Amino acid sequence: MGNLSMSMSGYTKLFHSILVSTIWLADDKTRIVWITMLAMADRQGVVEGSVPGLASFARVPVAACRRALTELASPDKDSRSQDHDGRRIEAIDGGWQILNHDKYRQRMGADERREYLRQKQAEHRRRIRQSTHVSDMSTLSTHTEAEADTEAVRTAFDRFWAAYPRKVGKDAALRAWTRLAPGNDLLTAILGALEWQREGWTEPQFIPHPRTWLHQGRWKDERPAPAKVQVQEAWRCPHVTRCPHRYACKTALLLPEKYPVREAS
């Protein structure tokens, strides 16, 4: 029997070995009728129809269709498969049965399973390559970002260290700074707080260690209001005999008979 194709899921599959089968040596119309029947066959290999209907599907004259059916139903001693003496079809009620249909259906199922597995394996390998590439790029990106973050933290710490007046415990201060990891806004707040707090740090022993200052969040301290400066008016003694100082003058004002006041000029 020549190589079989099957109509499954809306398509017909032909094995390439049909090209070396004896059916390929038949006349054109017989080959067309055979391939048409393969395309029309259901899952059981049954081709339903009449001779005129099959001829219409195959686009061949009815007489040519009858000759093709006769050849397909006849023994073929040169057929590669000697099942059914090489016959390819037999007439049944309502149409024709393609012989050896199950044999080729099973073969096609095995081929399709192998092709399915091959495609799945290729897809799996492709996903692994993509995943590995993405993972490598992600790892590289993560390392690059981490290095950039570390450099930014260290640069900001150097600015803090330069501004802080008590240079003790630098490593401890750096660890505290790294945990804090301040951004630009916080760095600005820290340096601003140091600017006014340094004015009150006149005794070095009372300046907190930089690690302590960071740990306690001392940049959040409220800046004290500036002290009010009381300006005293210039003292002018009003008495005839000038008093030696302001307080004596106040006492003299209580004794006007003893300490007369000069007349206003």
Tell me what the structure shows:
- It is a single chain.
- Helices cover 51% and strands 7% of the residues.
- It is built from eight helices and five strands.
- The radius of gyration is 54 Å and the shape is rod-shaped.
- It has a three-stranded antiparallel beta sheet, with helices on one face. A two-stranded antiparallel ribbon has the order 1-2.
- It folds into three domains: 5-99, Arc Repressor Mutant, subunit A, CATH 1.10.10; 127-216, no CATH class; 235-260, no CATH class.
- The chain has helices spanning 28-40, 51-58, 62-72, 101-163, 170-180, 184-197, 210-215, 246-253, and strands spanning 5-8, 11-14, 46-48, 89-92, 95-98.
- A hairpin with a 2-residue loop joins strand 1 and strand 2 (11-14).
- The protein has 265 residues and is mainly alpha-helical.
- Helix 1 (28-40) packs across helix 2.
- The longest helix has 63 residues, at 101-163.
